[in-house]
Amino acid sequence: MKSEPTGGRGRHTSVPSRRRLRWLAGLAVGALALAACSGPQGTGSSDEAEGDQQAGGGQGDLRVAVISHGTPGDAFWNVVKNGAEDAGEDLGVQVEYNADGDPGNQAKLIDNAVAQGVGGLVVSMANPDALGPSIKRAVDADIPVITINSGEDRSAEFGALTHVGQTERIAGETAGRKFADLGKRKLLCVIHEAGNIGLNERCEGTRDGFSGQVQNLQVDINNPTDVESRLRGALQTDQSIDAVLALNSQVAALAVSAIEAAGSQAEVATFDLNSDVVAAIQSGDMLFAVDQQQYLQGYLPVQFLKLYRENANVVGGGKPVLTGPDLVEKDNIDRIGQYVERGTR
């Protein structure tokens, strides 16, 4: 069920369109690109310009492949895709977005992009061991790589320029502290995807920030009925659980239903936003959401790759570029919820 955003403190009187948002973001980049082209290094021989275009670095000729581990059509990854495609439109970059939740298939998508000679790669690394060889082959082929969302700790190991996302352990710690501040004592952390190192890091971070007990529950997001059943069973078995942390907005909705079915007094918070989460926070059925602003995880890498190709810029200084965590709760949900409806939060 989707909710229409309602007015709240600090809300804008009108929501800027995605096109307006992209224009504002692109304006700064355009200024940088103009400065680069008009400076002493901006004029080169025709041979140099031709070489840049062959490498994908010429104005309008840069091809960037964005390859995520998300399921096609997933609400979270659709926002990443929106960010990447908006950046491509703003900056004159050809963006090709592909997604596959199977690590082996994701590696093949990377290999295909390398074989096609793309000018840059953006890759989410939920399973670094499976993707590492393919990413190294891209780097060896002089294709710059930026990792996003997952795999921050091993990004530099594989030769990526930088990582864009949130540090999952820090985000988990933020959630744990918030639950502790709310007086919760026993927390269930729901891991919905086996082998995803970022999800385990979120639960470990929650332990760091939470003053009570944290118990992990492994479920399979591809089987929603089983997810709800396992949650209900865990809550019925241990009535002392008073908090549930979902690491995915779809799981959060199932957790709300499971709590009601189990007759539990536990309350739910989640990672990531969608329309249902917005409605649940507004109605009081959910406490808060940890937002990693994934639109930026699509937009910024395309921007960074263009600047790298055209001006040799490297962003981050060896550190990740953080897009979160940003805590979304009752007092700011009306302001932020409008952008969820637009597809940019």
UniProtKB/TrEMBL annotation:
Protein family per UniProt: Belongs to the bacterial solute-binding protein 2 family.
Localization per Swiss-Prot or TrEMBL: Cell envelope
Domain of life according to the entry: Bacteria
Gene Ontology annotations for the cellular component aspect, listed alphabetically: outer membrane-bounded periplasmic space
Entry-linked InterPro entries: Bact_Solute-Bind_Prot2, Peripla_BP_I, SBP_2_dom
GO molecular function: carbohydrate binding
Name the record gives this protein: Sugar ABC transporter substrate-binding protein
Organism in which the protein naturally occurs: Prauserella muralis
Gene3D superfamilies, sorted: 3.40.50.2300
Residue span, Periplasmic binding protein domain: 65-307
Primary residence: other
